[in-house]
Design brief:
Length: about 450
Amino acid sequence: MFDNLSERLQEIIRKTGANATLTEENMSDALREIRRALLGADVSLNVVKSFISSIKDKAEGENVIKSTNPSQTLIKIVNDELTKLLGEKQSPLKLDTNPSIIMMLGLQGSGKTTSAAKLALKLKKEGKSPLLVALDVYRPAAILQLKTLAEENKIDFFALNNEKDVVKIAKSSLDFAKEHNNTVLIFDTAGRLQIDSDMMAELMLINHSFSINEKLLVVDSMIGQAALEVAVNFDEQLGIDGVILTKLDGDTKGGCALSIVHSTNKPIKLIGMGEKIEPLEDFHPDRMANRILGMGDIVSLVEKAQKNIDLKEAKELENKMLKAEFSFEDFLKIQKQIKALGSFGGILSMLPLGISKNDTEKISHEGEKQFKKIEVFIQSMTPEERKNPNILNASRKKRIAKGAGMDINELNAFIVQFETMRKMMKGLGGLKNSFKGKKGKMPFNMPPKFPF
């Protein structure tokens, strides 16, 4: 997300930092370029004016031009203001009753039903017992879609066939939840192609009939400034508690996120990536600001690893690597662990590499391509060959390359790299053991628990 804005801001910062000194003139140039970048990212004009004004006031207040490291000071100010614009701090869901109720709001096509399922999956992974409730009784196949998503992800589901009274359905779902010990109900309400009085009247009726813990507006981040109008309208009439931004991995300018928080004073609570049913992610303003400015997001990457990587298996793989006992089969396990963190591009975006978007895309593309090749090579081996790399002779290699439909030279290059890595890791393992029992720290950092 924010790819275009991120690239523009990073370019402005690099250009400003290249100056021998920071003067009032080139700082003014930087602010003008930042203004253009924000407008180009679909941030509303009022928000842009407020943002630039805040940066200018802070820069003058901290006397950026006379500071020892003016460009770094300017970066810090921009980062702080971006964080503030995105909501300043993470806003968790307030599910303090049993059962709690979450009301999903949004226009048709915003990804509301899919987001309801993704939210249920997130809550399930956190130890809660969610119940998906179908309250969209108008859209064709809406109930079937929600039911299918619930079944695929083993989440409880409730609907009343042929019933059009949404309040009656919701009340019945509460009784069902109490009987089946569901701790959170997720109301998937009806949307429309545009905001209309009938839709709002129904939503207000549901809102007044129940104690809603969270009213979450689902916004398609790709619709640009139209998202701001939707958010303001929903908030004025229903008083939303927060926003879920969807399709953040698409070709989005991202400016609506900055505009919504500023204009509604309501936080972005969760974000969704892609169409696959993966849990929604908590939105952290400070981490997102870091990513926009090319400073990475190591904390989120570590959290993702903790949630998706089998630590026991990772430890076993580490021990095998340090003893040079890991096989091609183990290599496949390593690839599987890395894939659990997401795409190469997603992982790279969380690392403070300081490289351009084009370079990131090239590295990501090449990495994905190499991983696929290695996977095909290994899958062309027999189980015995996967477990014991030492038995690969010329005839076996020829057969594997033919089975993979690739050149024998590529296979040989991979095997050489594999053996080189095994020897290197064995050397590190021996060095690690030589320090056991000795006082003081290692003279260098050992490889991470999960090598990638």
